[in-house]
Amino acid sequence: xxPKQQHAFxxxxxxxxxxxHLTQLGHAPDTAQLRDWYLALGRAxxxxxxxxxxxxxxxxxxxxxxxxxxxxxxxxxxxxxxxxLISMGLYDAIADAVxxxxxxxxxxxxxxxxxxxxxxxxxxxxxxxxxSLAAQQYPAVGYGLHYEYGLFRQSFHEGAQQxxxxxxxxxxxxxxxxxxxxxxxxxxxxxxxxxxxxxxHTYRQWVPSLKIQAMPWDLPIVGYQSNTxxxxxxxxxxxxxxxxxxxxxAGDYTHAQQADIDAGNLTKVLxxxxxxxxxxxxxxxxxYFHSAASVADILRRHLEAGHALAALPEYETIQxxxxxxxxxxxxxxxxxxxxxxxxxxxxxxxxxxxFAYTNHTLLPEALETWSEALIARLLPRxxxxxxxxxxxxxxxxxxxxxxxVAKKQVLSVIDDKGERMVRMANLCVVGSYAVNGxxxxxxxxxxxxxxxxxxxxxxxxxxxxxxxITPRRWLKxxxxxxxxxxxxxxxxxxxAQLEQLEQIAQYADDTAxxxxxxxxxxxxxxxxxxxxxxHLDITLNTDAIFDVQIKRLHExxxxxxxxxxxxxxxxxxxxxxxxxxxxxxxxxxxxxxPGYELAKSIIYAINKVAETINNDPRVGxxxxxxxxxxYRVSMAEIIxxxxxxxxxxxMAGKEASGTGNMKMALNxxxxxxxxDGANVEIRExxxxxxxxxxxxxxxxxxxxxxxxxxxxxxxxxxxxxKAALDSLLDETFTPGQPGALRPVFDSVMGSGDPYLCLAxxxxxxxxxxxxxxxxxxxxxxxRKAILNxxxxxxxxxxxSIRDYVNNIWQLEAIKR
Length: 816
Ligand code: OX2
Hints:
Rossmann fold, Alpha-1,4 glucan phosphorylase, allosteric enzyme, alpha/beta, glycosyltransferase, 6-stranded parallel β-sheet, globular, transferase, carbohydrate metabolism
């Protein structure tokens, strides 16, 4: 607690406030349930953050400074209460206050439902970035959507994934959010473009035929010990009935396609795709709704602060989190051209110095394209503007590479092979002053493989900012025992200056420290084992290696490679009398996109294998497999501190960065990983001896592809692998249903496996054998674990944000 906050906190006043909120909720202290008390606590705390939020909004210094606007369709913020208490420096004081009311703070915190307003890494990154912006006091507003249903809730029925809606705010609403009707916007769709003449000039004007109200809800992003609260502004779609009547009367009927899309549906659901583009009309409507409302709000703030329109790039920068908000570029152009009547060159000069774009993937299926026909129907004026942007851009290409049709074809914003499509990534690169990848290797590949022509045309535009994670949530809050141990050794500054963890390295060989460090790990493993016992009724050996793979389910992440290793361990335990292994618990947690059949088959296979192994008395506690359902931020907070081994096993070149890899290393887990994404940089930091690298690297992958990949040959040459694969075809794991796991078998056999699972199997097993050997040497293992915690300070999202600030955004911190 900072002295200022300590001074400000009045325990008895706070208790009175909690009881008042409880009363307003219609409950009496003697009969209220835990959940009622949690809501009262949240509301009492939110009073403070709301007043800080408003104060920050009115801060003249901030109005006169440059801000970043982080536009993202996803913010996977996780529970706010505990984290905000840490940031406010009030955790212990509130624990004390609620205990005087006869309550346990951790029980109250458990009542909060995760706002799962994101899918995976991309959304969680946005949340970590907001945390780091507020902690370091770089002026910022996060703009997202207020989905009524977050990512679905996952359960398993006989091993198969079931999805249920996640009404995260129901029934009482979310205590931390504040609706801001005075800041609402009206957003148009469909309609036509008219030509208007004024004072000898002609202008184009879009006349939408459908209008929807964008209602903002602000969530407070509380800066760690910084007295700064920035808004995460989430737009909700609301019907504007009177207008629809006008339009109807005017005979301006909306297109039949959109008949079933009313305003209330617009922000109902978060699309459950991660790293995959599904191209649905409603999704484009969400994207435009988000972009247009955010652009309007940014311009409102800019103009209200008294700045000239032309000075927009000096005061506001707009970061596009992936291509999802790309339509903000033509939207800003439309507003500047048609509403403010600027000339094209001036408007373009403003827009193209305002936007910057982060690319998160090279996977072709995740690179968004929208059909020209759809955009032209939904956003007719924007399609005109996109054509004009591209026309001028093609002239630029012609000037650089005269008569080079091939160059124009790859660079064009419009793909006209077949149905004409707008390539959103190309539009982003053309309309942004900076483009970045999310880890060193990934950014290199963006330049080399995805956008080599753009890199030649605009040298220096494509940069790297390696991802990071907030040490507040991902160490201080989720792992209090380790945090206390670290603070005892190096003081309390590390959550704001993670590089300081390096000082822990000096204790890596200290046997007394090793013991305390591993005792902490053990308690975290016991906590997780307790959760598993209570919720899944599986008894775990907490001396076992806790081997963890937690992330979205995707072929490229290769959960099925992990599964093949698990099966091979099982078979060796049964078949090889001399086989000895350190006990292991292999944890999985992952949601599959509901429409992604193979991902669901992999989940089913893991569950079936787990069921068989966990109930086979011959295995005892040597091997257990646990699939934790409904993976979410609050679950990650329990799993990550308990991990010994972190599985980061994507095929090289496919995982742009990964951030779970950073979280687990920070909490003292050792990575088993390919040379992919940020694994490469984690290895640089922790050193070769403290990470288990295996498999083909990016060059190895392309060599193998060139040679011709033949999984059958691998299958026939490796008996361990063959036996594991064969067991997917018989009844070993699906009694009475032979072949039920065949989709997984088929996906890795045949030359069709783009992710080369079998090619990496042998080396993966070798790396796991090394882990098994090293884990048995408790002191050596402790040393490696300590060094992981000590040496990953680089991966603080504070550092990522400083990279953006210095290399891209050019912001000044505004101290409050
Ligand atoms: C993810 C990437 O897959 C992951 O590697 C990265 O760490 C994360 O974004 C944050 O940068 N959808 N999710 C991602 O990319 C896309 C597209």
